[in-house]
Amino acid sequence: MNLVNLITPARTADADGCAAPPGTVTLVGAGPGDPDLLTVKAVKALQAARLVLYDHLVSPAVLEHLSPDAERIYVGKESSRHTLPQASIIELMVQLARSGRSLLRLKGGDGYIFGRGGEEAQALAAEGIPFTVVPGLTAAQGAAASVGIPLTHRDHACSLVLATGHLRDGQGLDMDWAMLARPRQTVVLYMGVNNLPEICRQLIAHGLSPQTPAALVEKATLPDERCITGTLAELPALALRHQVRPPALIMVGGVVSVRAQLVPSAPPVTAAAAPVHAVA
Ligand SMILES: C[S@@+](CC[C@H](N)C(=O)[O-])C[C@H]1O[C@@H](n2cnc3c(N)ncnc32)[C@H](O)[C@@H]1O
């Protein structure tokens, strides 16, 4: 892909010598994967888009809302493979907009929740490029509804924490473990599958019972979604046994146990000593 060719020559000046206005950027959250979970506003923006920069987690079914002749640029980032570094993505967006092109920036889930949409919006604001933001359902919301884990069921939780299990390169897992291990709280960790043993170890070391119900939700809302439940202590072994891979969420808290009442095929979460349960 020759990205330079996409950037048209600098905006031409009008008769008074003023540069034409830059293009606009629409930052759109594509939701967790199921295209039926797109917002109406997102669908309208997709249908109108002429140029789209999209990420790895945007499902092919979501892209079907695009016009067939819309230009598509894949700028996806997988945990170990970056097609374009984030700084280059931002630079490309700025250059395209400065050259007068309007574009739609499409991200999985919600762009402002672990999506680096905030960094992109900051850069656009700093450059004086007009932009709008269309929210999307974040993966935790999609997963909760899809697998039957009501994240703030009041019998079990009075707070909900969305946290990342993967910090910036080289910084390690420098988390506020005491805060995450508070009682009567649901914790949903994004990007944590590769650090799962350390996450479970730290939560237990900071006070959560090893018997705390926990779940892994892989590819939530997609046709091959999987939900694996167990106790916090047994979750790393379950992840290995079932070869859980990103994208997946880790959910920790009493609310996970409610699933057994909402999903007829789901087994109760049992103590660590008992056989583990996995539900596809
Ligand atoms: C870079 S973050 C993007 C989050 C996104 N902005 C959102 O609001 O959902 C990527 C992580 O989100 C989670 N994720 C995104 N989509 C998912 C899905 N369909 N099922 C499970 N986890 C998902 C995974 O933890 C994945 O590693």
Automatic annotation (TrEMBL):
Swiss-Prot/TrEMBL keywords: Cobalamin biosynthesis, Methyltransferase, Porphyrin biosynthesis, S-adenosyl-L-methionine, Transferase
Stored InterPro entries: 4pyrrol_Mease (IPR000878), 4pyrrol_Methylase_sf (IPR035996), 4pyrrole_Mease_sub1 (IPR014777), 4pyrrole_Mease_sub2 (IPR014776), CobA/CysG_C (IPR006366), Siro_Cobalamin_biosynth (IPR050161), Uropor_MeTrfase_CS (IPR003043)
Record-listed E.C. numbers: 2.1.1.107
Residue ranges constituting the Tetrapyrrole methylase domain according to the UniProt record: 24-235
A biological-process GO annotation: methylation
The UniProt record lists the keyword Lipid biosynthesis: no
Pathway field: Cofactor biosynthesis; adenosylcobalamin biosynthesis; precorrin-2 from uroporphyrinogen III: step 1/1; Porphyrin-containing compound metabolism; siroheme biosynthesis; precorrin-2 from uroporphyrinogen III: step 1/1
Record-linked CDD domains: SUMT
Family label: Belongs to the precorrin methyltransferase family.
Name this polypeptide is given: uroporphyrinogen-III C-methyltransferase
Natural source organism: Hydrogenophaga pseudoflava
Gene designation: cysG1
